[in-house]
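Lab manual, section 2.4: Encoding a predicted structure.

Procedure: take the sequence of the chain (128 residues), apply the prediction step described in section 2.3, and record the output as structure tokens. A sample record is shown.
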Amino acid sequence: MQSLVIRTGQVNLQIVDEHGEEKGVFSFNPEDVACAKRFVEIQRELVEKQKEFEAQSSKCKDDESKINLLNDIVEYFTATIDSCWGEGTSKLLFGNTKTLSMFSDFFEGIAPYYAEASKKRKEKYLKK
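Recorded output:
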């Protein structure tokens, strides 16, 4: 029987913490247009949420209020990541850590894959 190979564009990245300990494998498809679109939207949302945190944190009267605000933003993004890349993705990526910087690490780490996929799409489909 003959076979047909489907190139999905799937990328698998080993997730490693700052101590070099392997945490698992994150799989995603930067060639998936719907996911690429959502990736761009999430990046924009991250910038807005960081601004929101800075604005709201200056209004917080105590450290507990600031921590609660930060927790709300982190919870929002972990849910957003899970909705885009699958349930449990944020747990795989971040474990139980809750910082805004972890989102920057994540997005900066996968952005080149989306940029390359976008470049290839443009070259392939927008040739003159």
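Check your result against the sample. The radius of gyration is 18 Å.
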